[in-house]
Amino acid sequence: MGFTTPDKPVDVAALFPELAELARTAVRLHPREGTTTAHESSLGGPLLWPAEEPWPVCTIDHDDPRPLTSAEGRVLEVRKNALHDEMNALVGVGTQGDMAPFYRELDKVQASIREVRRVEFADDPAASLPMVAIAQFYARDIPELPFPEGTDVCQVLWCPVDHEPHYAPRPQVWWRDSSTVKALATALEPDEDSEPGCLPRACRIAPERVVEFPDSDELASAELRDRIAEWEQGQKWRYGPHLSAAPGTKVGGWGYWIQDIAQPECSEGHRMDLLLTVASAEHGDVGVWMAQETAAELEFQREVRFTLTNGSTGNTWIGKDEEFDAAGFSLFGHGVAPGSVTVSEELVPVTNSAPRGMDLMLGDVGNLYLFVCPTCPDRPTAVEFQCY
Ligand SMILES: [Zn+2]
Ligand SMILES: [Zn+2]
User: Fold this and answer.
1) Ligand nearest to the CA of 57
2) Ligand nearest to the CA of 159
3) Which superkingdom does the taxonomy of this entry point to (predicted)?
4) Do 318 and 337 share a structural domain?
5) 111 lies in which domain range?
6) Which ligand is nearest to the CA of 272?
7) Is residue 380 included in any domain, yes or no?
8) The CA-based dihedral angle spanning residues 112, 113, 116, 118, taken in that order and rounded to the nearest 10 degrees
9) Distance between Cα 373 and ligand 2 center (Å)
10) What would the pLDDT profile of 75-91 be if each residue is shown by its tens digit?
11) If pLDDT is split at 50, 70 and 90, which confidence band does 350 have?
């Protein structure tokens, strides 16, 4: 099945010509639960993984109660405990601002502890968790990806527990030449310690190209930002959520940011591109980013408002073709006052009646943003995670 995002209700590049040169194409993936093979592109589906290559496991930074034994490690752990004590002493007497320097130092100390721990326990990691398949893209389906010379498959797996510093699953990317894979490996089953919200349902994808524009915070010109904000006054549509970047799981394009914008650089100073956004929420609003085919699957309802016999007002919801039975309805033991019922003309989608796709729950309805350097030959990656 193909998916069609409706044409935008407003042509922002015509209204604000500076936006035209910032347009990028994103590939929306529209995941739907379904069976695929290792020889197809998918999200959360089987991978073209060579039998002779061990299935990847993650061994880093998982919970480990063992104390560090090196002198450096002991100093760090003493400092971490002291910081916890100082922060606990401030709780209730200090203000949020007082805590900020402690959090900053704690982040640094914990990062150093992770580094020391990786060295000290290199031969005996706390727990090794099988990584899980998140995405597989063949170049024939998504040629927009920066496939390194001689490769035609991009595979993304992640460790399905929260990792610092983002408290999000830790992804890793593999690029392959499909012609070199003769026999397939059997994927390891996810560990029972995996976060359920980080384990995707296997989905087919239906790539759809859409044109996107940057979040207004990503616009270099303050004057343009102000002009857009002014135009939004009295408009039904808002530039950010409705007219700039697509929500949901997608390849490339501009970031659909939940918090601040992110624009990482690789260690060589190259600007990195969005390789993949993995989203907990797929669809976006009806009439704007929700694909017509998805909207056709939604259930709709109407709101009914009324006054109760005790004088208070109330409301309820009925199916779009249902009749409201005022005589048979009561709320907290009170009936509906005769002649007080109004049924809304407007149809409202039933929450969660749209297909759930991969059915992920990353943090609180979060997005994981995977960046790649399109310039460095080994394609270094970076991760950003944001949630509500
Ligand atoms: Zn891990
Ligand atoms: Zn680079």
Assistant:
1) 1
2) 1
3) Bacteria
4) yes
5) 71-120
6) 2
7) no
8) -110
9) 5
10) 999 999 999 998 888 88
11) confident
